[in-house]
């Protein structure tokens, strides 16, 4: 649904839109996926610049939706991963206990083996305050931008900081 009255594109607008389309195809279409997003990209190449713009807005919405879906999948699988890791640790404890009960130092299953091995030496920090500075990692300082913005809005002077508005408008795409 166009928000402006379509007009005949100039030759320059056609050349620019074809160039933008070719760049988008090269950068954004995943050749391993045969999906709606790819089909819309390919269809955009046969459209006028105004139609191409409408199609590309829809492509952005679809890509955002797919990214949100993948994020929800990642959260779901992270939860499953944590449950599996907890179960594996409990099973590992059972193996350890069975080896102790049977006075066994090594055991073999059909998928793997278990054995006691000598532990490796590791560093233990017994008094952090005594560590030389060269052995301490310190995070990079970070500005508290929200606090600074609030102070400036209240009229306070914050040396080294100022409120800025970008020169170019920010593109916002809203899903219906």
Keywords:
mainly alpha, 4 helices, 176 residues, two-stranded antiparallel sheet
Task: Write structural notes for this entry.
It is a single chain. By secondary structure, the protein is mainly α. The protein has one domain (11-134). Helix content is 51%, strand content 3%. The chain contains four helices and two strands, in the order αααββα. It has helices spanning 11-28, 36-44, 49-101, 145-153, and strands spanning 106-108, 113-115. It has a two-stranded antiparallel sheet. β1 (106-108) and β2 (113-115) form a beta hairpin. The longest helix is centred in the middle third of the chain and has 53 residues, at 49-101. It is flat, with a radius of gyration of 30 Å. The model has no long low-confidence stretch (mean pLDDT 88).
Strand content: under 5%
Report on the biggest sheet: 2 strands, antiparallel
Strand order of the largest sheet: 1-2
* Annotation, overall tally of beta strands: 2
Output the helix-strand order: HHHEEH
Class inferred from helices and paired strands: mainly alpha
The first-to-last residue Cα distance is: 12 Å
Q: Catalogue the unreliable spans.
A: none
Q: What is the global morphology?
A: flat
User: Count of DSSP helices?
Assistant: 4
What's the Cα radius of gyration?
A: 30 Å
List the topology elements.
Layout: H1 11-28, H2 36-44, H3 49-101, E1 106-108, E2 113-115, H4 145-153
